[in-house]
């Protein structure tokens, strides 16, 4: 009994210390946690400090949904160089599945996505999640699904790419390579 209590106390202490460590090291818009898609696990985006981020609002039933394949290719090509791809499903344009398991199927089974995908959230207006509130203030709200926001490692630059900019386009890949 005492061992269990001691173990739980040590684990809780380590978790609190780790969370405080993230918060003290991260004083920008990424100091926030999101639940992963179809999971109870959460991720604090501070763990990606000093890495460029490619943040995308996604949807499962959009004419641009096939861009998941290109985003996955970007992830595989540049992750070892430091790029972090983050997908935020949103129903702001009424093209996301109602059930999270169906969204997960599109991402993980249909397109083989291995980059971080988060639970569905708003990306526009007053209900926008904290990351998109920041991005919207720096540039503007996405006008459709699959807007891409490249955020520099120092978090000082945000470059927005619209839905028509394909993930593997020269414009986006050049910007990523410059950010790396």
TrEMBL record:
Give start-end ranges for the coiled-coil region(s): none
GO process terms (BP): cellular response to oxidative stress
Q: Which GO terms describe its molecular function?
A: peroxidase activity
Q: Does Signal count among this protein's keywords?
A: yes
**InterPro entries, from UniProt?**
Glutathione_peroxidase (IPR000889), GPX_AS (IPR029759), Thioredoxin-like_sf (IPR036249)
Give one Pfam family.
GSHPx
**UniProt cross-references to PROSITE patterns, sorted A to Z:** GLUTATHIONE_PEROXID_1, GLUTATHIONE_PEROXID_3
Keywords attached to this entry: Oxidoreductase, Peroxidase, Signal
Signal sequence: where? 1-23
> Which residues are the active-site ones?
62
The record's SUPFAM superfamilies line, in alphabetical order, gives: Thioredoxin-like
Q: Which family does it belong to?
A: Belongs to the glutathione peroxidase family.
The protein's name = Glutathione peroxidase
Q: What is the protein's species of origin?
A: Pseudoalteromonas byunsanensis
List the lineage, top down: Bacteria, Pseudomonadati, Pseudomonadota, Gammaproteobacteria, Alteromonadales
């Amino acid at each position: 009994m005492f061992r269990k209590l001691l173990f739980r106390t040590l684990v809780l202490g380590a978790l609190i210390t780790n969370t405080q460590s993230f918060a003290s090291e991260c004083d920008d818009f990424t100091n926030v946690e999101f639940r992963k898609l179809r999971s109870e696990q959460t991720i604090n985006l501070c763990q990606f400090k000093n890495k460029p981020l490619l943040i995308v609002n996604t949807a499962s039933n959009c004419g641009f949904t096939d861009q998941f394949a290109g985003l996955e290719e970007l992830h595989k090509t540049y992750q070892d160089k430091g790029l972090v791809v983050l997908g935020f499903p949103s129903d702001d344009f009424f093209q996301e599945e109602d059930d999270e398991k169906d969204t997960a199927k599109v991402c993980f089974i249909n397109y083989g996505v291995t980059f971080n995908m988060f639970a569905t959230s708003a990306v526009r207006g007053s209900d926008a999640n904290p990351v998109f509130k920041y991005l919207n203030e720096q540039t503007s709200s996405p006008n459709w699904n699959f807007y891409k926001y490249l955020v520099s490692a120092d978090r000082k630059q945000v470059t927005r790419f619209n839905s028509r900019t394909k993930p593997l386009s020269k414009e986006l890949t050049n910007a990523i390579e410059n950010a790396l």
